[in-house]
Inverse folding.
């Protein structure tokens, strides 16, 4: 019969209309500023920089490699490399960002910066209340504002953060083992060298320096 | 007391006019009536916008606006202030004069429609002999304003919206007119107060509303469909289909001019609901004879608001039609059925009193509906939809 | 001849002149609706409600929209480069003058033929309806037939042509 689909649909909406006054479970939305639905773990809004330890400046994982700056599709990241170096989490000397700015109004939350970062230094935040009445300053986040501790990262993305920590620990262990092996090898080499030196004559062939700048420019 | 309450606005007007010299009295009375219409219906519009949003919210299991004032009732005030303080942007290549005139033509034409609607007993601004024709003549002028708005904006979305709107309004205006001709055939008058008076009678406590006759019910349903299309309401809101045309013919309007368009649309809804009430639902007459002590204007506004609720309900339920579906529905289903309804009305008129005419008219209409519905559905293939690429 | 009549006459004439003189086709179409509206108001001023409202309904609601649609669908809204005034304006003027002369003659002749009435006849919609389906039923039916034939013709013209095998 023509038109019974319309009647069925209207009965459905009428049911919604009246029952939404009766049962609170039907309401799919909450009254936002007073009530909030907790954000799901995979939520992502805006990137932040992870730091380890207590001091944000010393603990920043970022090494200012500028990969994220180059990969960012809307070009909202601005990095200035430092001139000096500081040790990273494995103790290796690395550059650090002297400036690290992200423009909230330009960022499109694509997470590409997170995907490309080899140092697990930049992650996505779940904080979404980014509105501000300061049109220029308030929307440009500098590195101090962006820096958030690893504990915070654990609190918003627990699974992901644990994986990251495991990976970093593994890397650190590997680096330490390598360093140890290198140290052992060096120690062994020096020991052997000194032994050989003691045994052989000191007329060991000097390595010839590489010929450089043949034709000039 | 009840009679006084019924006529309270007439008495109030006469009392106010009584302070003036006799020469000025008729003109002042009319001006007061105009002022009342110009104040009451926009006020109703403001309330309707917030009720519509709340109603749609409830239909979708949401709460709806509830921030401005108690239960969000001051939302229209906030909206009004917002639209009044917004910048009035006119596109550089727009035809400025026509662009400016379009919303004015719409609002003026729609306000004129209220002049002939009987809002209560004796409460009609102008009792015209050809009142119904006046109403439709003013409705025709709104089409022109829609075209003016769409064309003068010099925007493809506006122009497409206007073309759709005008094509749709012309198609459904035929149906709207023909469905009300049935009422004219029975009541024998084009004057709206006379049509209401013809329905304001009771048998065994039940009213003589035209909707309680076979041809009246069919006519009312056709009228409701045509009225929904005529006011560009969902499911016939193709002219301003947000997902396709931004906002249709008022894409390039902002600030106060946009508010005027918005006002015009809702006023058209009120006026067309008022006309439907007058023609089929007995206008200001009470639904039962023991309720006649309730003032007539309460019945009128109650019925109009009920129609508005149905408009909102439909909007919350039905998806938008496609352009070819819209046109096919108008010309191949609704129009033939309306013409048949006219014949049935004539039959009703000439069969005289008695139960025979009820049976004959009902059988003809139901049979026609079933047969035409079958024919209409025959071409459609219902069932699970198949997609070429999505699966 | 009240001042209102002169006002309405001026409005109608202005609308008509604007229709002829305006360069932009859509402006001309909008101006012709002003002329139609002025004419409708003249009818109303003569207390001919039915004719006045029918004029608005048919001419503003349908004819003006039809003109506008025709303009838009034929890409005629753009200004032609060589100007809008026809080269054969003299012939047009002669034809227009001829039509005007015939119409004027008909009006003047009818004024002398019909006896002058001093009292205004009270014509209600009811009377018009009775006259239409009573005394003038044959002309009405002929017009109806003509319109039906025109509608069917339009449908046939607009129908999809079936692809013929070549």
């Amino acid at each position: 019969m023509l038109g019974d689909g319309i009647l069925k649909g209207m009965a459905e909406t009428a049911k919604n209309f009246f029952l939404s006054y009766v049962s609170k479970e039907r309401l799919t939305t909450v009254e936002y500023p007073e009530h909030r639905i907790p954000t799901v773990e995979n939520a992502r809004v805006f990137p932040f920089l992870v730091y380890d330890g207590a001091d944000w400046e010393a603990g920043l994982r970022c090494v200012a490699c500028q990969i994220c700056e180059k990969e960012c599709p809307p070009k909202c990241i601005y990095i200035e490399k430092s001139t000096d170096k500081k040790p990273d989490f494995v103790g290796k000397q690395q550059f650090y960002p002297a400036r690290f700015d992200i423009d909230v109004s330009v960022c499109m939350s694509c997470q590409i910066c997170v995907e490309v970062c080899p140092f697990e230094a930049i992650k996505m935040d779940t904080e979404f209340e980014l509105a501000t009445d300061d049109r220029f300053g308030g929307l440009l986040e500098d590195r101090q504002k962006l820096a958030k501790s690893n504990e915070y990262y654990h609190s918003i993305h627990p699974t992901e953060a644990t994986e990251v920590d495991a990976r970093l620990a593994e890397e650190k262990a590997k680096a330490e083992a390598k360093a140890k092996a290198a140290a052992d090898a060096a120690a062994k080499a020096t020991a052997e060298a000194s032994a050989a030196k003691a045994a052989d004559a000191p007329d060991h062939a000097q390595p010839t320096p590489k010929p450089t700048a043949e034709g000039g420019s | 007391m009840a009679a006084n309450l019924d006529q309270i606005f007439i008495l109030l007007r006469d009392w106010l006019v009584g302070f003036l010299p006799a020469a000025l009295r008729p003109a002042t009375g009319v001006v007061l009536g105009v002022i009342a219409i110009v104040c009451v219906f926009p006020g109703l519009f403001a309330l309707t916008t917030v009720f519509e949003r709340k109603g749609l919210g409830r239909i979708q299991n949401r709460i709806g606006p509830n921030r401005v004032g108690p239960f969000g009732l001051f939302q229209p005030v906030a909206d009004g202030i917002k639209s009044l303080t917004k910048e009035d942007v006119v596109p550089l290549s727009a035809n400025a004069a026509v662009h400016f005139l379009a919303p004015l033509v719409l609002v003026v034409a729609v306000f004129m429609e209220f002049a002939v609607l009987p809002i209560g007993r004796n409460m009609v601004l102008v009792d015209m002999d050809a009142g119904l024709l006046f109403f439709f003549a003013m409705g025709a002028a709104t089409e022109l304003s829609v075209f003016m708005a769409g064309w003068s904006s010099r925007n493809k979305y506006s122009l497409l919206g206007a073309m759709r709107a005008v094509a749709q309004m012309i198609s459904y205006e035929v149906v709207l007119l023909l469905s009300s001709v049935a009422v004219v055939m029975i009541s024998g008058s084009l004057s709206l107060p006379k049509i209401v008076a013809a329905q304001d009678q009771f048998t065994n406590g039940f009213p003589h509303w035209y909707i309680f006759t076979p041809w009246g019910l069919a006519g009312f349903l056709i009228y409701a469909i045509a009225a929904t299309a005529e006011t560009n309401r969902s499911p016939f809101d193709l002219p301003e289909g947000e997902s396709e045309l931004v906002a249709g013919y008022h894409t390039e309007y902002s600030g106060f001019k946009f508010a005027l368009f918005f006002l015009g649309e809702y006023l058209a809804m009120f006026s067309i609901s008022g006309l439907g009430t007058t023609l089929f639902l007995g206008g200001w007459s009470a639904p039962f004879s023991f309720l006649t002590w309730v003032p007539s204007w309460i019945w009128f506004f109650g019925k109009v608001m009920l129609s508005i609720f149905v408009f909102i309900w439909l909007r919350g339920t039905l998806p938008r039609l496609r352009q070819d579906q819209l046109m096919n529905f108008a010309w191949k289903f609704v129009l033939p059925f309306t013409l048949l309804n006219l014949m049935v009305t004539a039959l009703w008129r000439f069969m005289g009193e008695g139960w025979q005419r009820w049976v004959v008219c009902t059988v003809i209409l139901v049979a026609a509906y079933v047969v035409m519905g079958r024919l209409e559905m025959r071409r459609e293939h219902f069932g699970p939809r198949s997609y070429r690429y999505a699966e | 001849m009240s001042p209102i009549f002169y006002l309405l006459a001026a409005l109608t004439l202005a609308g008509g002149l604007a229709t002829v003189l305006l360069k932009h086709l859509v402006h001309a179409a909008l101006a012709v609706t002003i002329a139609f509206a002025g004419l409708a108001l003249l009818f109303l001023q003569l207390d001919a409600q039915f004719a006045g409202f029918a004029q608005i309904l048919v001419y503003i609601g349908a004819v003006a929209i039809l003109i506008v649609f025709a303009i838009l669908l034929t890409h005629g809204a753009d200004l032609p480069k060589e100007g809008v005034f026809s080269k054969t304006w003299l012939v047009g003027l002669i034809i227009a003058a001829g039509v005007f002369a015939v119409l004027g003659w008909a009006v003047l002749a009818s004024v002398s033929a019909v006896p002058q009435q001093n009292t205004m006849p009270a014509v209600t919609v009811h009377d018009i309806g009775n006259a239409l389906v009573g005394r003038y039923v044959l002309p009405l039916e002929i017009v109806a037939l003509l319109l039906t034939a025109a509608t069917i013709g339009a449908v046939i013209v607009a129908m999809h042509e079936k692809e013929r095998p070549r």
Observations:
- Chain B has a mean pLDDT of 85.
- The CA atoms of residues 4 and 11 of chain B lie 8 Å apart.
